[in-house]
Amino acid sequence: xxxxxxxxxxxxxxxxxxxxxxxxxxxxxxxxxxxxxxxxxxxxxxxxxxxxxxxxxxxxxxxxxxxxxxxxxxxxxxxxxxxxxxxxxxxxxxxxxxxxxxxxxxxxxxxxxxxxxxxxxxxxxxxxxxxxxxxxxxxxxxxxxxxxxxxxxxxxxxxxxxxxxxxxxxxxxxxxxxxxxxxxxxxxxxxxxxxxxxxxxxxxxxxxxxxxxxxxxxxxxxxxxxxxxxxxxxxxxxxxxxxxxxxxxxxxxx
Amino acid sequence: xxxxxxxxxxxxxxxxxxxxxxxxxxxxxxxxxxxxxxxxxxxxxxxxxxxxxxxxxxxxxxxxxxxxxxxxxxxxxxxxxxxxxxxxxxxxxxxxxxxxxxxxxxxxxxxxxxxxxxxxxxxxxxxxxxxxxxxxxxxxxxxxxxxxxxxxxxxxxxxxxxxxxxxxxxxxxxxxxxxxxxxxxxxxxxxxxxxxxxxx
Lengths: 254, 200
Fold this sequence. Notes:
The complex is a heterodimer. Chain A is an all-alpha fold. Chain A has helices at 9-55, 59-68, 73-85, 92-114, 116-144, 156-209, 229-240, 248-253; strands at 2-4, 7-8. Chain A is 76% helix and 2% strand. In chain A, helix 4 (92-114) runs antiparallel to helix 6 (156-209). By secondary structure, chain B is mainly α. Chain B folds into two domains: 22-101 and 182-195, no CATH class; 102-176. In chain B, 86% of the residues lie in helices and 0% in strands. In chain B, helix 5 runs antiparallel to helix 6 (144-195). Chains A and B meet through helix 4 and helix 6 of A and helix 4 and helix 5 of B.
């Protein structure tokens, strides 16, 4: 079946597939670049602050930081671990296992999104290699039908098929090289971010779940005792105390 | 082109041998380090253990132990949860160690794929070029046969290089896997030592 004069349907379809692949590769490259730089800049801001907060065991600050830098990969993992901390198991071992489960599942979910461009690039690579190859083989088989192999009559159609198919094949290979490069870059960047995120999650586990035997003294903050839950409870009890209640100290003195 | 392929093949062999030599050195140092590390973890403080790890810094076991001691210095709580956290920390350090081989593997995998793809691409364009000369000029005077022959030689060379580098890649993967198995064995001993530490 011929669509254009001298160009069968398979060749036209292959050209169309290659053009779509070029467009898809460009879009994937831009998406990967934008996402990576966004995540990396957020992670660079978040990581040192989060490590410091976890070292001080300041969970509120860690939660605030995760909320502030939502786009950073560790933020998602740490915020779900902090959310789970409120309803943590009383048994330490079960608690650790539960935290580990949450960490792995959240990280898996977060990073499966990051590896999507690499997966797309892989499929594009397969398509841009196989489509021109199949088209070329089909074209050669069609052109071989009219050739007398002994005298060589009608071999022009074979040369024409090769001349038409080989540049397409070559272009497909070039696109495959680009897709491979994109896939490797995306995988490498994701692995780098995942390692960093796992590091921070382990820091959380070590600092906040593994109870320290040598607790470091917390930095003095003026007025912070006012916000302690015990102090607040005592103050509220004093406020609801009736005016005419007998003063025990006065009674004792009389 | 043959010179380039040859240079690339030599570079890949050198990378694989470098990796193998690194693993051998690490293995040899680990044999010497293991008893010293066990004694240091059980009887000495963190500073001594870190100093010992610094002395054997070319050994992967020392690097992992160093990270574990640094991270779990203040770790407390029941032994079961402590052991679990230690295992997590050591596994992560082990993964990090495995990522040290990552660049070599990525490079080998890249060369294996790219040499085949680039070889096919160049051979296809050269052949198409030769056929174009035949189609649009005088067939009797064209050098088509010679051009196509050269293109096929190039294709064969690049496919051979790709195959060879794929084998090298498999080899590096297999020696890295063997090292990982050895490390995991050693790590269980390190976990036991860290759990029975006198000076936490």
